[in-house]
Amino acid sequence: MALGATRRNVLRLIVIEGMTGAAIGVGCGLLGALALGRVLASLVFGVHVHDPATFTIAAATLTLVALAASLVPAMRACRVDPMVALRHE
C-alpha cells in the first residue's frame, strides 16, 4: 500500500494466495480419496465410497473454511497504516 496498491489489491492478493494452497490441497485430497476408495470402503458404513454428494460437501466445506481463514488476515492487512508498517520494519 505504501507503493501505491489499493486496499482491494492487497485483499485480493492475500485471498488468492491462501485459496491457491487450499485448492491444491482439496484437489489432492479428492484424488487421494478416489484412489484409496477401496481401502476406505471397510471404514465407512452407510455411505457409498464414491458418493458424489459426500465429496462435494467435504470439498465445499473445506473451501469455505479456507476462504474464511484467508479473509481474516487479509482484512487485518488492509487496515494497517502503510507508514506505521514502514516504520516498524
Describe the structure.
This protein is mostly helical. The protein has one domain. It has helices spanning 7-35, 37-41, 52-79, 82-88. The longest helix is centred in the first third of the chain and has 29 residues, at 7-35. It is rod-shaped. The model has no long low-confidence stretch (mean pLDDT 86).
Radius of gyration: 19 Å
Number of strands: 0
Q: Report the sheet with the most strands, covering strand number, pairing sense and barrel closure.
A: none
Runs in which pLDDT lies below 50 for 5 or more consecutive residues are: none
Map the helices and strands.
Blueprint: H1 7-35, H2 37-41, H3 52-79, H4 82-88
Summarize the structure.
The protein is an all-alpha fold. It has 4 helices and no strands.
Which keywords apply here?
89 residues; single chain; mainly alpha
